[in-house]
Amino acid sequence: MGEWGVIAALAGRMPAGPLTSVGIGDDAAVVGAPSGSVVAAVDLLLEGRHFRRDWSSAYDIGVKAAARSLADIAAMGAVNTALLVALAVPGELPASWPLELADGLASEAARAGAGIVGGDTARADSVLLSVTALGDLAGRRPVLRSGARPGDVIAVAGPLGRSAAGLALLSAGVAVDAAPEAVAGLIAAHRRPSPPYPAGPEAAALGATAMIDVSDGLLADLGHVADASAVALDLDSSSLVTGGPLSEAAALLGRERPDSYRTDTAGSRSPTALEWVLTGGEDHSLVATFPASTQLPSRWRVIGHVRAADGADAAGVGVTVDGAPHAGPGGWQHFR
Amino acid sequence: MGEWGVIAALAGRMPAGPLTSVGIGDDAAVVGAPSGSVVAAVDLLLEGRHFRRDWSSAYDIGVKAAARSLADIAAMGAVNTALLVALAVPGELPASWPLELADGLASEAARAGAGIVGGDTARADSVLLSVTALGDLAGRRPVLRSGARPGDVIAVAGPLGRSAAGLALLSAGVAVDAAPEAVAGLIAAHRRPSPPYPAGPEAAALGATAMIDVSDGLLADLGHVADASAVALDLDSSSLVTGGPLSEAAALLGRERPDSYRTDTAGSRSPTALEWVLTGGEDHSLVATFPASTQLPSRWRVIGHVRAADGADAAGVGVTVDGAPHAGPGGWQHFR
After folding, report:
1. B33 touches chain A (CB under 8 A)
2. Is the CB of A227 inside 8 Å of chain B's CB atoms?
3. What is the pLDDT of residues A246-291, one digit of tens each?
4. Which residue of B has its CA nearest to A211?
5. A118 to chain B: closest CA residue
6. What are the pLDDT digits (tens) for B243-288?
7. Cβ of A239: how many Cβ atoms within 10 Å?
8. CB contacts < 8 Å between A and B, how many?
9. Nearest CA in chain A to B137
10. pTM score > 0.90 for this model?
11. CB < 8 Å to A87, chain B
12. Which of B3, B26, B216 to mutate to test the interface with A (most CBs of A within 10 A)?
């Protein structure tokens, strides 16, 4: 098809969005920034590291790549406006592959209200994508990681642990077709995360004091909030949803592949749904802190509280579960 | 050093810029967009395709990667405000390598008035970079590729062919230390392009009707303008600077490696400086069209004129040199 043909075909599948005055096809795009500032983030996705082509379709990878960057904008309290996509693919891939990827990108961008306004393409030995997301704060102040205060509640919008459970099922070779429906949903969640974008601006409007998207795992990402805010964060395990599909998946894995699963993910311990909820990333749900008096809409579930850090030394800062450090894999101490 | 350590070290070397209210370290950056819109472009640079680590230092690659995206913003008539950088490097590279790259990125961003406000890092088998540039139009309308009108003059700011000549010298194995000073300057130009960023907003203020940066070669990039504007562009070869270092380099290559050079770049013909000027990319100079009555500052050199396309069919649209199609490699017909 040739480079220009591919770009034209890609551009035709990716609408530019309502705020875009110059889209794909010139040296740069021009996108509205009504607030007088722009919120911007970039994420890199590499084949074999962030996705596998035998586990995810081109469309799935497009959805995931878009979601990863779009969620960063929402986590600032901003509304998504536009994506720019740099893409390299191997020459031997069929021409339909990047087009289906474009469909996935466009679909998830549209779900967030954003257009696709620019890009660059190249050949490489494996697929790589870099997605830049732009957003607008609509006059609100950005919600940073650094504003959590003792007494605030910690609340989450969106699921936790579902993508990690889906990845564990794929890693264990569980066939989607043979899996119970609820468990198959976890694999789908891994392939196509579905972040709750409107919850970001909603949290900002409600007065959220800090916010982050769960990309590396709840403990790890809250660790960044604890660090930046110089507070301690305590999660209430009873408020973390671990039943239903997550428990079914843990039981399935413990029963079918007990040895390999134990070795892969939890040392000598059995798989637990709580592990996925605490340490699984890539659901791109939003976790925020709010003043305790905030009336939270139902999509925000309170999962813990902010406390003062013990003493002045950094050892008192961190994330605990039911008042104690979490000792499992991927816990906060892992990032020390 | 670990991922967080590398990010912190990188961030410390890359100032955020004057319009940035939230820089590296949160989910996303917040950058001023005083005009109420943002200009944005992304470019991908892959080792072995866009640069070689044995021909360019980490610092050089940082400069080149930044320049490539910054020039896209200038070519819209906008002022650069910020860069976001996604970077993957092999694990075996010394920790100093990404830090020197960051120095190169920061240096070139500062030259354009931009800060570095966000990024992402990963491991990969070879170095890859994606640089997103943001800019502001300061109330001006963007200068598109589509506005050239018959009667306009074509003018260029910045050098042509220097990067291509430098690449030819490197490809032929010419040692920089042994090369005459003027010729060594071409190799330096290939390693560290130096686009004339302020010429972009200047052209917009002067009423430029179309503009593009020369990234793929003068004929190829003007071909995009001819296509988008539905006009014919004619270059005057006598106005294209081909003497001095370019002629010296052509003579050096023709003398030292006549056979390989002929085969590599120009079929059966000898290397000529004009070839580099017409088809060499990566200098990232700016080429624009202006109404013929425009009083151009001295950095803009008139190199041709815009004419009406012959007839209604696309065959009349294109770029000519002294009134005739250019038959050499990389000429316009190559992109048909």
Report:
1. yes
2. no
3. 999 998 888 655 444 444 444 434 568 999 999 998 999 999 999 9
4. B27
5. B41
6. 899 999 998 888 655 444 444 444 434 568 999 999 998 999 999 9
7. 13
8. 195
9. A30
10. yes
11. 44
12. B26
Phi-psi region of B7 (alpha: psi -120 to 50; beta: other; left: phi over 0): alpha
How far away is chain A from the Cα of B2, in angstroms, using its nearest Cα? Answer: 10
The two three-digit tokens of residue A68, written as one number:
């990863």
Q: Contact B102/B11 with Cβ under 8 angstroms?
A: no
Which of A78, A83, A40 is CA-nearest to residue B85?
A: A40
Confidence of residue A98 (pLDDT cuts 50, 70, 90): very high
The number of residues making up chain B comes to 336
pLDDT exceeds cutoff 90 at B6? no
User: In A, which residues are within 8 Å of B21 by CB distance?
Assistant: 37, 142
What interface predicted TM-score (ipTM) does this complex get? 0.91
Chain B CB contacts of A76 under 8 Å are 22, 26-28, 30
B6 close contact with A: CB closer than 8 A: no
Of the candidates B23, B18, B21, the one whose C-alpha atom is nearest the C-alpha of residue B85 is B23
Q: In chain B, which among 190-219 make CB contacts under 8 A with chain A?
A: 211-213
Q: Does B316 touch chain A (CB under 8 A)?
A: no
Interface test with A, best of B6, B38, B131, B333 (most A CBs within 10 A): B38
Residues 6+ apart with CB under 8 A from B82: A40, B16, B17, B19, B20, B29, B31, B114, B115, B116, B117, B133, B134
- Judge whether A31 is closer than 8 Å to chain B, CB to CB: yes
Dump the DSSP string for B95-107. THHHHHHHHHHHH
Q: Could you tell me if A317 and A230 are in contact, meaning their C-beta atoms sit under 8 angstroms apart?
A: yes
Q: Per mean pLDDT, which range of A150-164, A237-251, A308-322, B258-272 is the poorest?
A: B258-272
* DSSP code at position B243: S
Structure tokens at A33: 């920034």
* HEC sequence for A64-109: HHHHHHHHHHHCCCCEEEEEEEEEEECCCCCCHHHHHHHHHHHHHH
Tokens 């050079």 correspond to B261
Residue B336 has pLDDT above 50, yes or no: no
Strands B128-136 and B37-46: antiparallel
How would DSSP label each residue in A140-207?
A: PPP--SS---TT-EEEEES-SSHHHHHHHHHHTT--TTTS-HHHHHHHHHHHS----TTHHHHHHHHT
**Shortest Cα–Cα distance, A312 to chain B (Å):** 22
3-state DSSP call for residue B132? strand
Burial of A226 (0-12, 13-18, 19+ CB in 10 A): buried
